């Protein structure tokens, strides 16, 4: 039996104009857990301390001045603090650890069939422009007897989203994290996201969706397993 969880609320405010998943298969990023990519996330990134928050507030004040704004006018007085706090939240994933997050919620269920949590909504910041990208992740694995608490899959997506990211790396990190904590037969992750740096500025293409995937183990090696995953991702639940 295959387990499928879906957060249908999350899809409500997202366009359904996602590209046909069939077409995405050729573009899949097949990865191994130990693979390094050219993107290497900074190892020096750390959670924002109180001191860094003050520095960030100063930087925001400088930006306001550079824009020709008056940081002392009433509407902007608290803006440096608000922005610094928002950035602190939006990058809070740097201060989380996989072990703490999973909290030993691993259960020996003797289950060896696919588990999929789909439509996990996510909000992240692209590291090139520090503008949001948002969308959803579909996360699946095939256990070797042991399963992980379902919410932990969404928490893993959350931890890696709340950082400065590129979508490809986010996708890969989620897959590798599940492989690391559970050592399952395989992991599959698809992320569909819309980048504000491509909508609000630059090339200005609102409505475009970027789809990335990461496949480990049996999802990489066995096309039937991959097919099953993709058809479950495509299927629209009609429960609610
Ligand atoms: N691969 C990848 N590229 C991204 C992601 N987020 C933003 N980018 C791209 O990063 C690139 C940065 O390109 P640059 O030419 O250095 O910057 P730019 O002049 O602001 O580029 P434009 O967005 O084309 O105006 C752009 O093509 C963005 O679309 C991501 O998650 N993955
Ligand atoms: Zn960007």
Automatic annotation (TrEMBL):
Region (Disordered): 1-49
Domain of life: Bacteria
Family matches, as PROSITE patterns: GTP_CYCLOHYDROL_1_1, GTP_CYCLOHYDROL_1_2
Gene3D superfamilies xrefs: 1.10.286.10, 3.30.1130.10
GO MF assignments: GTP binding; GTP cyclohydrolase I activity; zinc ion binding
GO biological process terms, semicolon-separated: one-carbon metabolic process; tetrahydrobiopterin biosynthetic process; tetrahydrofolate biosynthetic process
Annotated binding of Zn(2+), by residue: 126, 129, 197
Family annotation (InterPro entries): GTP-CH-I_C/QueF (IPR043133), GTP-CH-I_N (IPR043134), GTP_CycHdrlase_I (IPR001474), GTP_CycHdrlase_I_CS (IPR018234), GTP_CycHdrlase_I_dom (IPR020602)
EC numbers, comma separated: 3.5.4.16
Domain GTP cyclohydrolase I, chain residue ranges per copy: 58-233
Pfam families reported in the protein's UniProt record: GTP_cyclohydroI (PF01227)
GO cellular component: cytoplasm
Pathway the protein acts in: Cofactor biosynthesis; 7,8-dihydroneopterin triphosphate biosynthesis; 7,8-dihydroneopterin triphosphate from GTP: step 1/1
Catalyzed reactions per annotation: GTP + H2O = 7,8-dihydroneopterin 3'-triphosphate + formate + H(+)
Keywords of the record: GTP-binding, Hydrolase, Metal-binding, Nucleotide-binding, One-carbon metabolism, Zinc
Biased composition (Polar residues): 1-19, 39-49
Enzyme class: hydrolase
Record's keyword annotation contains DNA-binding: no
Family statement drawn from the similarity comment of this UniProt entry: Belongs to the GTP cyclohydrolase I family.
HAMAP family hit by this protein: FolE
Self-association state and partner proteins as the record states: Homopolymer.
Protein name: GTP cyclohydrolase 1
Origin species: Leptolyngbya iicbica LK
